[in-house]
Write a structure and sequence with these properties.
Helix content: 55-70%
Number of helices: 9
Radius of gyration: 21 Å
Order of helices and strands: HHHHHHHHH
Distance between the termini: 40 Å
Oligomer: single chain
Number of strands: 0
Structural class: mainly alpha
Length: 207
């Protein structure tokens, strides 16, 4: 059974302790990476006892999740009145997100905490806020008639993010601007995943 990630009740956690632990873990992640970092090293670097560290963070995945939340950059995409321009801005944000030094750390964290939803929840909340900003671009494109009304925005965003992550983490290769423009043009041409139809028909949900 997974160890509980609920924070203990009682005296609230010191913000000074939090700042020192997050700062120490951030430095260690840069120096040794997620796989090389240990709770003992975090405690020594942060100048806190292991008892204090484990009281608030049961393992390094929990500490790492808090580091990633502290680093998170959630930016709104302005209404430019031009769907193509907004989609290119969105690709720029995806580029930044997957280029960041913590991309591999996020992948390790997801694997390490796959059975402990409490560890990742605050970080996933950040991801969801980023996703909401991207969906807003899609909705504006639909309203302008530039994107299909039945576009599966989540599937499309997963494909776009997956392309960048794969190129950055698993098959190191450049991401060309021409390719990004082609992906945007395909979306504007209606070549996108579509939501399942609801109602009668051979491919309809429940049909």
């Amino acid at each position: 059974m997974a160890k509980s990630t609920q924070r203990p009740v009682g005296r609230p956690r010191s913000e000074d302790v939090r700042d020192r632990v997050v700062g120490a873990a951030d430095e260690l992640l840069a120096e040794t990476g997620y796989l090389g970092m240990t709770m003992d090293e975090i405690a020594v670097r942060a100048k806190v006892s292991k008892k204090t560290l484990y009281r608030w963070w049961p393992h390094k995945a929990a500490v790492t999740a808090e580091v990633l939340v502290a680093r998170a950059d959630v930016r709104a995409i302005a209404d430019l009145g031009d769907t193509r321009a907004e989609l290119l801005v969105l690709f720029g944000y995806i580029d930044d997100f997957t280029r960041a030094r913590d991309t591999f750390t996020r992948l390790c964290l997801t694997e390490a905490a796959a059975d402990e939803s409490g560890v990742l929840q605050s970080f996933l909340d950040v991801v969801l806020r980023r996703r909401d900003q991207a969906r807003a671009v899609m909705q504006r494109g639909i309203a302008r008639g530039d994107l299909p009304a039945d576009i599966d925005a989540d599937a499309l965003l997963d494909l776009w993010n997956g392309y960048f992550v794969y190129r950055r983490s698993f098959r190191p290769a450049p991401v060309h601007e021409d390719t990004v423009r082609q992906l945007v043009d395909l979306a504007l041409a209606g070549e996108v995943p579509r939501l399942p139809r609801v109602g009668p028909g051979p491919h309809a949900v429940g049909g």
